[in-house]
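Entry type: protein chain
Record version: 2
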Amino acid sequence: MRIDLHTHSTASDGTDTPAELVRGAAAAGLDVVALTDHDTTRGHAEAIDALPEGLTLVTGAELSCRLNGVGMHMLAYLFDPEDPALLAERELVRDDRVPRAHAMIAKLRELGVPVTWEQVAGIAGDGSVGRPHIASALVELGVVDSVSDAFTPQWLADGGRAYVEKHETDPFEAIRLVKAAGGVTVFAHPAAVKRGRTVPESAIADLAAAGLDGIEVDHMDHDPATRARLRGLADELGLLATGSSDYHGSRKTCVLGEHTTDPEVYGEIIRRATGAFPVPGTGGRRSA
């Protein structure tokens, strides 16, 4: 059983539509895929409608959080998408994306980069605009060779020359909100140092005490030694250890199913969730 619990579509900063993503997941031989767009569930309905037979969809989102000035992402699975408190917080984060993007574009222009809002908005399409869309614009302009090369102190990394902060949720509050909405929380790529500063691993114990369910261990941004260390930390703290691709379509080099989650861990995620059920088969819904 092959399970990928972290992917993105055009509902946020991926390049595949939700329908294309689930069809691609089936073609890649996955049995389960989670759609976890940034701070939105807008792609879920399309993904469900296009869900191929034999593939199960886990509904979720990747929540933008910040702890002591350091950005981090929280994967939330199988929560009630209509829960009013969690919905209101996601909307706060999403609504801040547009003015933030305008401010980052202004900084880039001050640095001599001829990027425009129209270019970035065209790349984002109907998705929630974010740094990857601005990074793609820098690639188009020949400023950097790849999206990853834009996430450096020279450009868009946290604290970088063109970086602008946005509203982000306190992770302890994110855990509380997701739990109240019947969901399960997993700290995404906690040691992805190439992206910039990371939350110290000592803080993961505090998050675990607050109800964090797991940490994403097997990820493209974690080398083998880091994965081994994080797996040991998960065991020590009683946390679930997940694995996933963090697929973004052509925007990143990772492929669907590049890393996967153990079926027993997936089963425990389902057992803990009360806000929603995984959706099996050809577009049929199961009510929570």
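Comment: The chain has eleven helices and eight strands.
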